[in-house]
UniProtKB/TrEMBL annotation:
One of its GO terms (molecular function) is metal ion binding. Residues 163-263 form the Fe2OG dioxygenase domain. Belongs to the iron/ascorbate-dependent oxidoreductase family. Keywords: Dioxygenase, Iron, Metal-binding, Oxidoreductase. This is Oxoglutarate/iron-dependent dioxygenase. It comes from the Eukaryota. Pfam families: 2OG-FeII_Oxy, DIOX_N. InterPro entries: DIOX_N, IPNS-like_FE2OG_OXY, IPNS-like_sf, Oxoglu/Fe-dep_dioxygenase_dom, Plant_2OG-oxidoreductases.
Length: 316
């Protein structure tokens, strides 16, 4: 598990417990960054991110693989159904995470302090099972992306080493002024691939698509998958690591669980030779050791989609 400990941010559960009606000043977004929930500029609800049937992918279905290719090029995001992870495993993970967020702050701190915990969660059977299943799904997506990028099925794994995984749990309390705040600011993910288990009912995730924000409407038991920075770089910008954010709502708290699939930190990442074509698609990024990329990524915090700029080459 790579990135060790969670950052000591003030516990939102504690803030809400103390006063659930006011929005602390520092959460209020600048006018331009507010989610605009009631004005014009509403997210276009007619648009939906692509849905991929994982069982077809696993059966080497050419058509589904083409859909995956398009989804990664045009959206950077897709939902997968029929991923084969048992409902029970998803439910147990959600229950364990919800229980964790219910713990009093003192108990949570104990987990946060313990070294080698996944983002302050401690060891748990639910987490281990979930993480193992996610790994299998990620490996199959990797295999398909490898083929789409002109490699053998195990091409990406060979280049990146064994896949690492980090889990982040997000808790968004209800908010009396969802129009003023964001649950999570716009960012792209720094790993290779992110698999997100989100609430079955509450819409919170929004992604940038053609300059506007599009809601990712929950499909019960589906996983939301997105291309993250390392795959954007490996694909020489053909697949996009898209900016996304989460909004809050007045009615119901929301939990999401993000599994970040990461390259081996000691490996170099850079555009695959198969994705570079000096005439039509010149090399867009320089090579960088993944650990160096992450150090620079973390130094910039969550600030929009400037991350891959770290390695972008000037194209003349
Ligand atoms: O809660 C969500 O839907 C988004 C979470 C997210 O983007 C992240 O954890 O990186
Ligand atoms: Fe994210």
């Amino acid at each position: 598990m790579g990135w060790g400990k969670s950052l000591p941010v003030p516990s939102i559960q504690e803030i809400v417990r103390n006063d659930s009606n006011s929005v602390p000043e520092r959460f209020i977004q600048e006018e331009n960054d507010r989610p605009k929930l009631v004005s014009e500029n509403l997210p276009d609800d007619s648009l939906e991110i692509p849905v991929i049937d994982f069982s077809l992918l696993a059966n080497e279905d050419e058509n589904e693989r083409r859909k995956l290719d398009l989804a990664c090029k045009e959206w950077g995001f897709f939902q997968i159904t029929n991923h084969g992870i048992e409902k029970e495993v998803l439910l147990q993970m959600k229950t364990a995470v919800a229980a964790f967020f219910e713990l009093p702050i003192e108990e949570k701190m104990k987990y946060a302090m313990a070294a080698n915990d996944i983002q302050g969660f401690g060891q748990s059977e639910a987490l281990d099972k979930y993480s193992t299943e996610i790994q299998k799904v990620a490996a199959e997506i990797y295999a398909n992306l490898s083929v789409l990028m002109g490699l053998e099925r195990d091409g990406l794994i060979k280049l990146q080493g064994e896949l690492k995984q980090g889990i982040r749990m997000n808790y968004y309390p209800t908010c009396s002024r969802p129009d003023l705040v964001l649950g999570i600011s716009p960012h792209s993910d720094g790993g290779a691939l992110t698999l997100l288990l989100q609430d079955d009912e509450i819409t919170g995730l929004q992604i940038k698509h053609k300059e506007s924000w599009v809601n990712v409407k929950p499909i019960p038991d589906a996983l939301v998958v997105n291309i993250a920075d390392a795959l954007e770089i490996l694909s020489n910008g053909v697949y996009k690591s898209i900016e996304h954010r989460a909004i809050t709502n007045e009615k119901k708290e929301r939990i999401s669980i993000a599994a970040f699939v990461l390259p081996d930190e000691q490996r170099e990442i850079g555009p695959l030779e198969t994705m570079v074509d000096e005439l039509h698609r010149p090399r867009m990024y320089r090579k960088i050791k993944y650990i160096d990329y992450i150090m620079q990524f973390l130094a910039k915090k969550l600030q929009g989609k400037a991350h891959t700029d770290i390695v972008k080459l000037e194209i003349k």
